[in-house]
Write a structure and sequence with these properties.
The complex is a heterodimer of chains A (about 425) and B (about 400). Chain A has about 425 residues and is mainly α. Chain A has helices at about 5-15, 25-30, 30-40, 45-50, 70-95, 100-110, 115-120, 120-135, 140-150, 150-155, 170-180, 190-195, 235-240, 245-260, 280-290, 305-315, 325-335, 355-370, 375-380, 385-395, 400-410, 415-425, 425-430; strands at about 200-205, 210, 220-225, 225-230, 300, 430. A two-stranded antiparallel ribbon of chain A has the order 1-2. Classes of the chains: A mainly alpha (about 425), B alpha/beta (about 400). At the A-B interface, strand 5, helix 18, helix 21, helix 22 and helix 23 of A face helix 1, helix 7 and helix 8 of B.
């Protein structure tokens, strides 16, 4: 495949949520480095995202007792706000002029994977999402401090039950294993020690606030990764983030989501060193500029949300305007991915996990449903004699295989079927 | 954990399955084809796991009906002794479980009492994960039957779970069990179908992930016409049950529908040694009595129907059904005619191979542990027996060095 098309296609689909009509062709004219710069530069104003109305998410108070009159309005409010919150985020992804910010917020959601199934309160999930946006391309040490004090994360990992009398290791373990260092880069004694430092948090999950109760806190000195000290919660966060393993680990996670979920990050991967000050933007820039970006070994499967948002952008659809929101969420549910519902603290699966024959079936049904709600303006504007090949530019696909070209040619007389085949083709489901 | 939560648990925990071990998704036709071409050898033991999601209230399932503490601890939700189905002088079955009572009388039911694990966890998600992974101390991503699957020769038909998402129970490190959606797969028709099949063709330009995407599409269409008759055929007749409108009664619940599919495929000779089916809704924090009775009735009716269906096949002596839930519920009622999350509960093992009766000690209502029933049998004792005596497989690769056994099978 043409190296330029490959790299530009990867920039659009991995470092953003896919091109809008016309953007891929324009990028080909501009060239790889101009496109990379464009995608990596945060604009002063994001007019697209500005069109998205903020959802009204409020403190609904603690859950009333079962079988009381208050339960029904509470449950309805909860369901209603959760749906609004989910659709709001999908709108952000689909309409934003700066895909990378949205992509990074999505990445951090999978990194600090917290599920509303346990947290239950949409306000807490919304506030956590604000942290992902604030630090999307900011400083990781600051993000980690903010996350330690995030009500949703604390509640999700049982921080409120972690006390000096009865330590709960859940958050302490995951802080090292999944958030800052990576598995096997610490001992079980380190887990116990970090858990002790993190004792004392009390969470008001409906209001999404935390307080540290000094009576429940263990203030004794502990030894973590060989260093004995009386740490604070923020202090232990800084200490872990400062370890060289943290740079390695965050680079590995970015590699896994942006370059390859099937091939390991090479030893001595050069971009790691750009994370020395724990600034996220330089690391992401270095990865987007690395030679791995043009290496054909590193294909990625689009996750269901990534696939759906890139379809919305190509078909000029706004998630909140799709009829109905419940059907939309049901389609995403069948494909196995709804924002705010990661499967577990380890985050979303990747690669072949998204490629079962059931998902092929559900993807066809989802695409059919979306296509019916689009005018297919951009596709219809391509002259029919050029449509097969030029549709690759419309969707930002590197190149169609001969196999897929045949299928597309067979359906030239039916734009809806043409779009369906293009969107469900291996070349679109996978970022080459 | 209601039905929605059960679905979510499955979906969510499915993420824990290692990438390399992505669950193959079978079409019913593929299984039927395998059943025709390479049927399970006659006499091979078959295990059917029945998972009750939500935490079944064990104390209102197998009821200590002569213990005054039972009535005084939960006055709002205790059953009247005259309605219960006595099993011996001390214990009785829930009034809704007539089908299982009849199997009990035929000595085909083992009830293992007080089953659980050390340091019970009251979270649905965590506790179900512990039961399914058989690893109460440490969170791991493989299920105990998944690890057994790892020890067996590769065969996508070896272990099949009904439903669209793989339960962690069947997730192995190298391989996983397969999933079979109850409704089967809906396959596109007409020119879309023709062109989808074109898209599914192998292309030399494909990288391995694109090839996998094309394969997933191709599998959707791999329907073999030779096996359609098996699928269209009615489920095996339940010989002990009255026939109503050409079919047996009691086949309406979702569990019965799952077991119908299992029965059909076992009858056809599917080379499957382990099946997994499930029923949700046992999280009865409120208004428990009715809800639980309906569910236990469904469990009891579907299992007795299934056992009866097996009698019209050649596999009747081979099949063993195992029923469990992630925890029991607290002894005391909670003030809203329900119960909160508790600890141990009974397991049921049903089949011709079973030596009917009680196993494990009945947890005392007097000597509670923090207000909960004690755990008197570790679930690993039961799993080890299933592995060793039913699946004829070594225990250690699955459960490590575990010496406990529960001798609920005929010698």
């Amino acid at each position: 495949m043409n190296a330029k098309r490959l790299e530009i296609s990867r920039l659009f689909h991995r470092f953003a949520f896919g091109p809008r009509p016309g953007e891929f062709a324009a990028a080909l004219t501009a060239g790889v480095s101009a496109t990379r710069k464009n995608i990596l530069t945060v604009p002063a104003v994001d007019a697209g995202a500005g069109r998205v109305t903020l959802p009204e998410i409020t403190d609904l108070g603690p859950r009333p007792k079962p079988n009381t009159a208050e339960v029904v309005p509470f449950a309805l409010g909860m369901r209603n706000q959760t749906e609004k919150l989910t659709i709001w985020w999908l709108d952000q992804m689909a309409l934003s002029d700066h895909g990378l910010t949205e992509k990074m917020a999505w990445f951090w959601h999978g990194h600090w994977a917290t599920s509303i199934t346990k947290v239950d309160h949409p306000l807490a999930m919304y506030k956590q999402n604000q942290i992902f946006r604030q630090y999307a391309l900011g400083n990781f040490a600051q993000m980690s401090r903010a996350m330690i004090n995030d009500a949703a994360l604390q509640y999700w990992l049982d921080g409120q039950t972690n006390t000096v009398k009865a330590p709960n290791e859940n958050l302490g373990r995951e802080l090292m294993e999944l958030f800052t260092l990576g598995v096997n880069r610490y001992t079980e004694d380190d887990v116990k020690a970090v858990a002790r430092v993190l004792t004392g948090y009390q969470v008001n999950v409906s209001a999404a606030t935390v307080v540290v109760n000094p009576k429940r806190r263990d203030t004794s000195a502990v030894t973590i990764l060989g260093q004995t000290s009386t740490y604070t919660a923020e202090g232990v966060s800084d200490y872990l983030v400062g370890k060289s393993d943290c740079a390695q680990f965050i680079a590995e996670r970015l590699w896994y989501r942006f370059i390859s979920s099937t091939e390991n990050m090479p030893a001595n991967f050069a971009p790691v060193k750009t994370f020395s000050a724990r600034e996220i933007a330089p690391l992401v820039t270095a990865i987007a500029s690395d030679s791995a970006m043009s290496n054909t070994r590193y294909a990625m499967v689009k996750s269901p949300v990534e696939w759906f948002i890139s379809v919305c952008r190509a078909l000029e659809l706004t998630p909140s305007e799709l009829s109905t929101s419940k059907q939309l969420i049901n389609h995403l549910n069948k494909l196995g991915q709804i924002p705010f519902y990661p499967p577990n603290v380890g985050g979303w699966p990747a690669a072949e996990a998204w490629l079962s024959s059931a998902s092929a079936q559900y993807r066809i049904a989802f695409a059919t449903w979306l296509i019916k709600q689009s005018s297919l303006r951009a596709l219809n504007e391509i002259p029919i004699d050029r449509r097969v090949l030029a549709s690759a530019d419309w969707l930002g696909v590197g190149e169609w295989s001969a196999r897929t070209q045949t299928a597309l040619r067979n359906s030239l007389s039916d734009p809806q079927e043409f779009a369906l085949l293009a969107l469900c083709s291996p070349e679109y489901v996978v970022s080459a | 954990m209601d039905t929605v939560t059960r679905r979510k648990f499955l979906q969510l925990t499915a993420g824990a399955v290692a990438v390399g071990a992505a669950a193959p998704l079978l079409s019913i036709d593929e299984i039927a084809a395998a059943a025709v071409n390479r049927p399970l050898a006659a006499g091979t033991p078959i295990v059917v796991m029945v998972t009750l999601y939500g935490g079944n209230d064990g104390l209102n399932t197998v009821i200590p009906f002569t213990d005054p503490l039972y009535y005084s601890s939960r006055p709002e939700i205790s059953y009247k002794a005259e309605n219960m189905l006595p099993l011996d002088a001390e214990l009785a079955l829930n009034p809704a479980m007539k089908g299982l009572k009849s199997l009990w009388d035929q000595k085909k039911v083992a009830i293992i009492r007080g089953v659980g694990y050390p340091n019970p966890d009251r979270s649905h998600f965590s506790s179900m994960a512990k039961w399914q992974t058989a690893s109460p101390e440490k969170h791991i991503n493989t299920g105990w039957l998944g690890r057994w699957i790892d020890t067996q020769a590769e065969d996508s038909m070896l272990a099949i779970s009904l439903g669209s998402v793989l339960p962690p129970l069947f997730a192995g490190a190298k391989r996983s069990g397969s999933v079979l959606p109850l409704g089967g797969l809906v396959i596109p028709k007409g020119s879309v179908a023709t062109n989808c099949m074109q898209l599914a063709k192998v292309s030399r330009a494909d990288n391995s992930l694109m090839a996998a995407a094309a394969t997933s599409m191709r599998n959707l269409f791999s329907v073999s016409s030779t096996v359609q008759p098996i699928l269209k055929a009615p489920a095996p007749v339940a010989v002990d049950l009255p026939v109503v409108n050409g079919g047996n009664a009691g086949g309406d619940s979702n569990l019965a529908q799952q077991l119908d599919v299992v029965a059909k495929l076992i009858a056809a000779g599917s080379p499957t040694k382990v099946w997994s089916v499930s029923l949700g809704g046992f999280d009865t924090h409120a208004n428990e009595a009715n809800a639980q009775a309906v569910l236990l009735g469904a469990v009891s009716d579907s299992i007795s129907r299934f056992i009866s269906q097996m009698k019209s096949t050649s596999r009747s002596a081979d099949v063993t059904v195992v029923v469990y839930s992630e925890f029991g519920r607290r002894v005391a009622g909670n003030g809203s005619q329900g119960t909160d999350h508790g600890t141990s509960g009974p397991m049921f093992i049903v089949g011709d191979k079973v030596n009917g009766g009680f196993y494990g000690d009945q947890p005392s209502l007097k000597n509670l542990v923090n207000g909960d029933l004690a755990v008197t049998t570790d679930f690993r004792d039961v799993y080890a027996t299933i592995l060793e005596s039913l699946l004829k497989s070594p225990v250690e690769p699955v459960l490590g060095k575990w010496s406990g056994r529960t001798k609920f099978l005929k010698v």
